[in-house]
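Incident log, support desk, overnight shift.

02:14 A customer reports that sequence design results differ from what the structure should imply. Their input is reproduced verbatim below. On-call engineer (initials T.W.) acknowledged and began investigating.
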């Protein structure tokens, strides 16, 4: 029986130009983003300038992770200890983590069967709750109707912060995600769209937010070395009252990221082609449901999600094991305990009180997830789909 042997979690190598740039920094020892005598180490600054230009945003601040970018973004839009912050319930642990980092509490919003924030539930909770900030997570790259979301936020005086950890380079109706909210946050962690091990990028058009984010990031009053930055008067307003949280991006991270950024749109097309190969095959497997994707959703599919329907959790678990035994490792959000990168709101016991999210629970019970590496070729996609179909047929035969 055929098994699949490629490691889907292999992130692929860093472009040679990135290696050379990092090597040059190592030779100089200039791994910190700021220089004292001069701004002799320009990698982080250059990355910020290039990323702001790519996004069409006025300002970009580079940070040590997306989780910290979310935390800083929430601080800059005024989230205080004890506040409440809306978060869509299907997300990764660092998102409610960023809210907790502020001493605030998430108000979780239901999702729909296409893994998107449930706009009706958001409308209802926006009317009921005192929360004034939405931390919207485009989880696993699924993009909700952002025109409608912006409308709801405006109607209720809610400020939106976007978590774009999985939507770097992705668009809603032609406009880049991260430019709909007041602040957009991106990850450059190894398993996202560009890889520096750890790293985060924050973009905004708001000078007060940009100045605060720079100061929070730990600029040691060397913010003059930032390329995309507000005027000194804006910094003068904030510099004494904004603590230094030391969440800077390192120069090495920026050095390896810059050549990857140049290839982002190209790589996005590669990912999407692979997504389509897999989706076409998986779509015809019984009990397997793929999400419907709106034509306006310009996603970058670095992973694929689907639901198993009309099966019990035990049968799902068995299916996961059967596929795993043949080298196709599926992640499952329906596990009782958080495993690897998957967790659900039930695992976040630091929340004030358990959330009631029947719809989200039902969907996440059957939700599976698989990474799509760029190294996946057409034959790989066929083999994966064949294994998944055969194992489903076997499972069905035992029902
Ligand atoms: C990875 C991820 C983050 C956090 O990114 P880090 O850079 O690892 O802190 C936030 N949100 C989502 C949806 C993610 O997948």
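02:41 Re-run completed on a clean worker. Output:
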């Amino acid at each position: 029986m055929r098994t699949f042997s490629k490691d889907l979690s292999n992130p692929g190598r860093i472009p040679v130009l990135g290696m050379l740039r990092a090597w040059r920094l190592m030779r100089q020892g200039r791994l910190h983003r700021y220089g004292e005598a001069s701004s002799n180490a320009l990698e982080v600054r250059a990355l910020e300038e290039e990323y702001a230009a790519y996004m069409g945003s006025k300002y970009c601040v580079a940070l040590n992770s997306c989780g910290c970018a979310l935390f800083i973004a929430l601080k800059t839009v005024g989230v205080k200890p004890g506040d409440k912050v809306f978060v869509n319930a299907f997300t990764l642990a660092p998102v409610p983590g960023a809210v907790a980092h502020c001493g605030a509490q998430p108000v979780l919003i239901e999702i729909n069967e296409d893994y998107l924030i449930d706009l009706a539930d958001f409308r209802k909770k926006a009317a009921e709750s005192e929360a004034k900030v939405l931390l919207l997570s485009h989880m696993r790259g699924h993009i909700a109707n952002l025109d409608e979301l912006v409308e709801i936020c405006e109607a209720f005086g809610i400020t939106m912060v976007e978590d774009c950890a999985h939507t770097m380079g992705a668009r809603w109706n032609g406009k880049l995600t991260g430019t709909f909210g007041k602040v957009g946050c991106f990850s450059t962690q190894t398993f996202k769209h560009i890889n520096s091990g750890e790293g985060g990028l924050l973009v905004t058009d708001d000078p007060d937010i940009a100045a605060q984010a720079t100061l929070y990031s730990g600029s040691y009053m060397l913010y003059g070395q930032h390329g995309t930055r507000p005027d000194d008067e804006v910094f003068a307003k904030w510099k004494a009252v904004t603590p230094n949280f030391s969440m800077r991006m390192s120069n090495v991270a920026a050095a390896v990221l810059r050549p990857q950024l140049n290839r982002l749109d190209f790589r996005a097309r590669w990912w999407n082609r692979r997504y389509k190969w897999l989706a076409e095959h998986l779509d015809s497997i019984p009990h397997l449901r793929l999400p419907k994707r709106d034509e306006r959703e310009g996603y970058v599919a670095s992973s694929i999600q689907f639901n198993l329907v009309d099966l019990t959790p035990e049968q799902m678990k068995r299916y996961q094991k059967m596929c795993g035994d043949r080298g196709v490792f599926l992640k499952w959000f329906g596990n009782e305990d958080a495993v690897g990168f998957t967790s659900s709101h039930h695992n976040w016991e630091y929340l004030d009180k358990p959330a009631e999210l029947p719809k989200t629970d039902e969907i996440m019970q059957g939700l599976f997830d698989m990474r799509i590496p760029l190294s996946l070729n057409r034959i790989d996609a066929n083999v994966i789909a064949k294994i998944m179909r055969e194992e489903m047929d076997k499972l069905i035969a035992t029902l």
